[in-house]
Amino acid sequence: MKKHLVVIGMMLVLLTIGLSGCMNTITDTGGGISEITVTGNPGEKTQIICPKCSSKGTFTFPQENSESKTTTDSFTIKVSNLTKKYNNFKAVDDVSFNVKSGEIFGFLGPNGAGKTTTIKSMLGLIHANSGEIRINGFDIKKRGKEAKKYIGYLPEKVAFYDNLTALQNLHFYAEMKNVSKEECEPLIEEFGLIDSINKKVGNFSKGMTQRLGMARAVLGNPPILILDEPTGGLDPRGVVLIREKIREVRDKGTTIFVSSHILSEIQEICDRVGIINNGMLVAKDTVSELSEKMSIKPKITVELEKISDKVTEAVKKVDGVDKVEIIGRSIEVVCDSKTRGKVILAIATAGGNIINLYTKEPSLEEVFMRFTEGKK
């Protein structure tokens, strides 16, 4: 088995080609190398003859790489039929979902539902029993190294080198990511840690460590962020900061997969959500679509100058009204959006003088509870 320099079209490729009986030794590219021009289609075979010794061999043109990054697919993350077992226990059971390029996808579930197992599988940190995960078109099992280049990751339990300062830690990870160290100090300032830039991380609070973890995740501007409980341990100011940063990078085209148990935060920032329970994905859609599927209706609160029995009875008689509750001078009505106009008309017809009116759309918490109740 000898190495010969082969010209394919205009591209020089050093290939190993089996030429039976060929004894020529190729030492370097400076001389003594046999150049052979071959052309053909992927998968096609052609006969090779060594110009030095006339030994014959066969060369097969490589097939086009089917594992290349998918450039026409609008999904940046694709999880298909993912299953992970621990002995006889299924931590994740046939889970499938896609995350669109440039969207924020929320991943929700009770403790032990399979969120962390799913995330670790997506990152190639554990090996699933079956299923396929593609990150930016790359199969995480077969092309994990290429896939991970696109990911910035914030784990649930953020850890750094305690004996290094915030800046030294980020410098270390910048070297690992092959990113300019010049990005580090501005990121530390951006996440509100500039006054602690030269302090050892071992003396940081939980919230400070969490902020530094987000800085590390976005270091190098990765096109995909996977965030596990990004607001954990943060005070209200820190929560707002992280929320704004997530929106900022999304607006720049970053795809974000975020897992959290704080449902109000997910509802605030996510384009779509997936709900996992007992290892199975029980729902995935926008909050409004999931609410509609579960027949969770909005609540209308109408503040009146004066509440009367006539007004209350008139509202109760409106078709489509599910629930009526009187609180002080306000009447709360649960009904679908189409019925809201009828309710307002009924109140006015019954002599009610409306002072204020607002609608509370179904919350993610209501959707979450409906999909997970009784499924323990």
Verbal overview:
The structure is a single chain. With 376 residues, this protein is an alpha/beta fold. The chain has 3 domains: 2-60, no CATH class; 75-290, P-loop containing nucleotide triphosphate hydrolases (Rossmann fold, 3-Layer(aba) Sandwich); 299-360, Alpha-Beta Plaits (2-Layer Sandwich). It has helices at 115-122, 144-148, 166-177, 184-190, 206-218, 236-251, 263-269, 287-293, 309-316, 340-349, 364-372; strands at residues 2-8, 11-17, 35-38, 45-49, 56-60, 75-86, 89-100, 104-108, 130-135, 138-139, 151-154, 224-228, 255-259, 272-277, 280-285, 299-304, 321-327, 330-335, 354-360. The strands form 5 sheets. Strands 11-12-13-8-14-15 form a 6-stranded mixed sheet, with helices on both faces. Strands 7-6-9-10 form a 4-stranded antiparallel sheet. The chain has a 4-stranded antiparallel sheet with strand order 17-18-16-19, with helices on one face. Strand 6 (75-86) and strand 7 form a beta hairpin. Helix 9 runs antiparallel to helix 10. The longest helix is centred in the middle third of the chain and has 16 residues, at 236-251. The protein is extended and about 105 Å long. The chain starts with a strand and ends with a helix. Mean pLDDT is 81; it is low at 1-35 and 64-72.
